[in-house]
Automatic annotation (TrEMBL):
<dbReference type="InterPro" id="IPR012944">
    <property type="entry name" value="SusD_RagB_dom"/>
</dbReference>
<keyword id="KW-0732">Signal</keyword>
<keyword id="KW-0472">Membrane</keyword>
<dbReference type="InterPro" id="IPR011990">
    <property type="entry name" value="TPR-like_helical_dom_sf"/>
</dbReference>
<protein>
    <submittedName>
        <fullName>RagB/SusD family nutrient uptake outer membrane protein</fullName>
    </submittedName>
</protein>
<comment type="similarity">
    <text>Belongs to the SusD family.</text>
</comment>
<feature type="domain" description="RagB/SusD">
    <location>
        <begin position="268"/>
        <end position="521"/>
    </location>
</feature>
<feature type="domain" description="SusD-like N-terminal">
    <location>
        <begin position="83"/>
        <end position="228"/>
    </location>
</feature>
<keyword id="KW-0998">Cell outer membrane</keyword>
<dbReference type="Pfam" id="PF14322">
    <property type="entry name" value="SusD-like_3"/>
</dbReference>
<feature type="signal peptide">
    <location>
        <begin position="1"/>
        <end position="24"/>
    </location>
</feature>
<dbReference type="InterPro" id="IPR033985">
    <property type="entry name" value="SusD-like_N"/>
</dbReference>
<dbReference type="GO" id="GO:0009279">
    <property type="term" value="C:cell outer membrane"/>
</dbReference>
<dbReference type="Pfam" id="PF07980">
    <property type="entry name" value="SusD_RagB"/>
</dbReference>
Length: 521
């Protein structure tokens, strides 16, 4: 079985770990660590482990990776577009989220702080437990630091000036963006020291063999990413090199194996959120207090699903389709990542959900000539469509390919442009693209920046990275780049300064005295 379901009296803990044993139902009844009996809960090793499992659980609900967070990360990029009939979703990519309507972005904000609160409970209570296994205690605390850092990373990255809770309290004052990033970096630093390289080798204890928990590599990768987002290229470079030097990660041969449920937690996965159709109940975790009927499934597939197979709220852009055709493979073929990324009317045919694309859409010219998302779709013929809302495909938050390309970027930014070729080519080799050092030798630092932008655009399309890249590279402040984006993606026509961040939810402003709204809203 992929998960053990831990049922608390009033809290159903959503696990993001893969467990390999089964237990009796009676063993699963525990005191809720989030109610008034909290002090009596934190008593032993098992309680500590269940507490950190609750912190993982906030990754699986609607505000985070069940649906909302991928939408918030994807829709502002020039690789995606939305014609959703739901205004809250439609407006995300048009930089027009409504302060009076917190749908989607407000749910994400709430869930990030739920995860931070749960992580803080672990960090507050577990040190006082006289645990039998001190190594386990250290790993649990390391995971709590990692998870707090991850939730806060999202909060700062999407909302800019936010509270930075590092202890349990009733109110948390709003902090500056710099203060938020400083805490993110500190949490990932601490986690990187405390976490193991793997839970399958050299580990004994309650968490032994549990694939999916945060590792040293995950903490170092996110530490590097936090540094990179703050243009601290030297520290970012060193963190990414530390991940590479662990010698535990490698790219999978088949690019598409990163987006299905067939090869999860593979050698390329640095950290991923664990979804499963077999775990828990059949209800979706929309938000609020978890219920016993909640499953561990994702609504991403139906939200991004092709017409007649899902809601088609997110689609690839023509700019993305065209850029895949700018360079052919060594054998003269189209970049194979195109077919792994989107469905389209491919010459020679393309199958989706057991149907031939051209045949299925043949009577509707608009759909026949449209583009639909393929990443994270259950579309290989096992399911007729996504209308049960229950995808079990794990969300890959950090891939080793990302580490390699971010490392190449830091080499370029620290004056080692020639060395960047090696790590870029490692990613290109998987899809049989020509040797960049031969096709584009001796690039300048600026030329290499542009090349890395192109490489990242195609490698990580529809994975929530593109807009983060656009913003951190300063393209929104560059008139030429902004005009280029507008020509590629009509949604940029409504961008205005400040709208690169989401608004602070009004409920937060009302309930947390002294909180200021973000500029531009």
């Amino acid at each position: 079985m992929k998960y053990i379901n831990l049922k608390y009296v009033s809290l159903f803990l959503s696990l993001s770990i893969v467990l390999s044993s089964c237990v009796a139902e009676d063993d699963l009844i525990q005191v809720d660590p989030n109610n008034d009996a909290v002090d009596s809960f934190w008593a032993d090793d098992q309680d500590a482990l269940q507490g950190v499992n609750a912190a993982y659980g906030s990754l699986l609900t609607d505000g985070t990776y069940m649906r909302s967070t991928p939408l918030l990360l994807d829709l502002k990029g020039d690789d995606s577009r939305s014609n959703s009939p739901w205004g809250s979703m439609y407006n995300v990519g048009r930089f027009n989220s409504n302060v009076a309507d917190p749908a989607i972005y407000g749910w994400a904000y709430e869930t990030y702080y739920q995860g931070i609160y749960r992580s803080n409970q672990v960090l507050d209570k577990v040190p006082g437990i006289a645990m039998e296994d001190e190594d386990l205690k250290n790993r649990i605390l390391g995971q709590a630091y990692f998870l707090r850092g991850l939730y806060l990373f999202h909060a700062v990255n999407l909302f800019k000036n936010v509270p930075v809770p590092v202890e349990l309290a009733a109110f948390y004052p709003q902090k500056t963006e710099a203060e938020g990033w400083a805490q993110v970096i500190e949490d990932f630093k601490t986690a990187s020291v405390m976490l193991p390289v793997s839970y399958t080798t050299g580990i004994s204890g309650l968490d032994a063999g549990e694939v999916g928990r945060a590792t040293k590599g995950a903490a170092l990768a996110y530490l590097g990413k936090a540094y990179l987002f703050n243009k601290d290229f030297i520290n970012a470079r060193d963190a990414f090199k530390a991940v590479i030097d662990l010698n535990v990660y490698s790219l999978v041969t088949n690019y598409r194996d990163n987006f299905t449920d067939k090869n999860e937690n593979n050698s390329e996965s640095v950290f991923e959120v664990q979804f499963s159709r077999e775990a828990g109940g059949v209800d979706l975790g929309w938000g609020g207090a978890p219920q016993s009927g909640w499953g561990k499934t994702s609504a991403r597939a139906i939200t991004y699903g092709p017409r007649a197979f899902g809601w088609t709220d997110v689609q690839p852009t023509l700019a993305l389709f065209n850029e895949f055709h700018e360079e052919t493979t060594v054998s003269g073929e189209v970049d194979p990542r195109l077919d792994a990324t989107m469905f389209y009317n491919k010459p020679g045919g393309m199958m989706l959900y057991g149907q031939d694309f051209a045949t299925f859409y043949g009577n509707n010219p608009a759909d026949l000539n449209d583009l639909f998302c393929r990443k994270y779709q259950n579309s290989d013929g096992e399911y007729a469509n996504e209308y049960d809302w229950r995808s079990g495909i794990n969300e890959r938050l950090m891939r080793y390919a990302d580490v390699l390309l971010m490392y190449a970027e830091t080499l370029n930014e620290t004056g080692a442009t020639a060395s960047a070729y090696t790590y870029i080519q490692e990613v290109r080799n998987r899809v049989n693209l020509p040797d960049l050092s031969v096709t584009k030798p001796g690039m300048s630092q600026e030329e290499m920046r542009e090349q890395i932008g192109h490489e990242r655009f195609l490698e990580f399309a529809l994975e929530g990275h593109r807009f983060d890249d656009i913003r951190r590279w300063g393209w929104l402040d560059d008139t030429n780049k902004l005009n280029w984006l507008k020509a590629r993606d009509a949604e940029y026509a409504t961008y205005s300064k400040g709208r690169e961040y989401f608004p602070i939810p009004q409920l937060e402003i009302d309930n947390n005295p002294g909180t200021d709204q973000n500029f531009g809203y």
